[in-house]
Design brief:
160 residues, mainly alpha, 434 Repressor (Amino-terminal Domain), 2 domains, 9 helices, 60% helix, elongated
Length: 160
């Protein structure tokens, strides 16, 4: 390389690194999307949540954009005061709000209403992995029951 080319290289502006010059990138985008959905479901603005929790609007905005994680105080407020299912915030699984025992479901199941409400309450207490096992067991049992009733039509239903 000649001396002129070396000088040109030295005088060139260094290339900008996108990571250092751009705004912070969202690392927790999914959690932010869920946190925003919860806030909107509560019918609150960022200002309203800020006043209710004592957390700055900027910080709430940051974690709703996925740049930061929500604080423990924010999660505790949602869980205790707003009856929010915190699993929804972190994983997106389940309903936004936890079912309240004794509070009627918005759907009418007639004479089975109490049984359905008890089942919904139970489902929120049982880990998801166990629910998947129960679902697989029930599907197996239904297939087995169907097979038995097809092959042995005279079999009493109480035995199935």
């Amino acid at each position: 390389m000649t001396d002129d080319k070396k000088k040109e290289e030295m005088l060139k502006e260094p290339e900008k690194d996108d990571d250092k010059t751009s705004k912070e990138k969202p690392r927790y985008l999914e959690i932010g999307v869920h946190a925003k959905a919860v806030r909107e479901a509560l019918g609150k603005t960022i200002q309203g949540m800020s006043e209710a929790t004592g957390i700055s609007r900027g910080y709430i905005s940051d974690f709703e954009r996925g740049v930061k994680l929500p604080t423990a105080r924010y999660i505790k407020y949602l869980y205790e005061k707003c009856n929010v299912n915190t699993n929804y915030i972190f994983s997106g699984e389940g309903l936004i709000f936890r079912p309240v025992k004794g509070k009627a479901l918005p759907l009418d199941f007639g004479s089975h209403q109490a049984d359905v409400e008890e089942l919904v309450w139970f489902m929120y207490k049982v880990p998801h992995a166990l629910l998947y096992q129960l679902q697989a067991h029930l599907e197996y049992k239904l297939k087995y029951k169907q097979m038995l009733s097809e092959h042995f039509p005279g079999l009493k239903k109480e035995l199935l």
